[in-house]
Amino acid sequence: MRLGLEGRVAVITGAGSGIGAGVARALAQEGSLIVAADLRETGIAPPLEVGAERWLAVPGDVSTPEGARRPVQAAVEAFGRLDILVACAGVYETGSLEEVDEKVWDRVHNVNLRGSYLCAKAAIAEMAGRGFGRVILFSSIAAQTGGGVAAGPAYVAAKAGIIGLTRSLAQKAGPHGITVNCVAPGVIDTPMTGVMGDDVKQEIARRVPLRRTGSPDDVAFVVAMLAAEGAGYLSGTHVDVNGGLHMA
Question: What family does the entry list (predicted)?
């Protein structure tokens, strides 16, 4: 089943690795035109089956207004418009309450929460006059569980904030034909979760009803559905992709 993504112009931040790379690959395979953004554009190569004319890599620090606007501007300049934003860029933090100082707190919030806001703001401004848009942000299972042994308070708070941000933006952007949703992954095998250590991830996998951790492709499939033409009446919600680890 095709999702109606052929020819859609998509910006994916954090596209250099992990979930962001998986999302960029999945949308490209569905026929979308991709602006793949990361702190460094080097190494963000298109999949072999995707022509270079359908893929643009750009650098951008989403924690700054200029960096957040850059991929949106690049999409408009290269492809004429923007249809989809997937804000995957993020940093992870595992410190205890005592270990998380103001510097760590600010870095995690600047990238995860502030960056999501700045990217969404830039994208919605471009989409609003066109009557169509899909904005997909990223929360986490940590926002629902408090992080457990895996995530620290700065990360948990930032990802919880993204759920509230999603609901607020959905209300503001809805009259313009723009949906805003977020995805809340569980433990996904990416470089980011590599800091947990294999023993922690194996223990988590034993607790997952499906008895495994997730892959970027598991998350990318859900993102593609949220971006699809037929998802126009789904907005202001978060979708859990955690193998059944947390049900609430």
Answer: Belongs to the short-chain dehydrogenases/reductases (SDR) family.
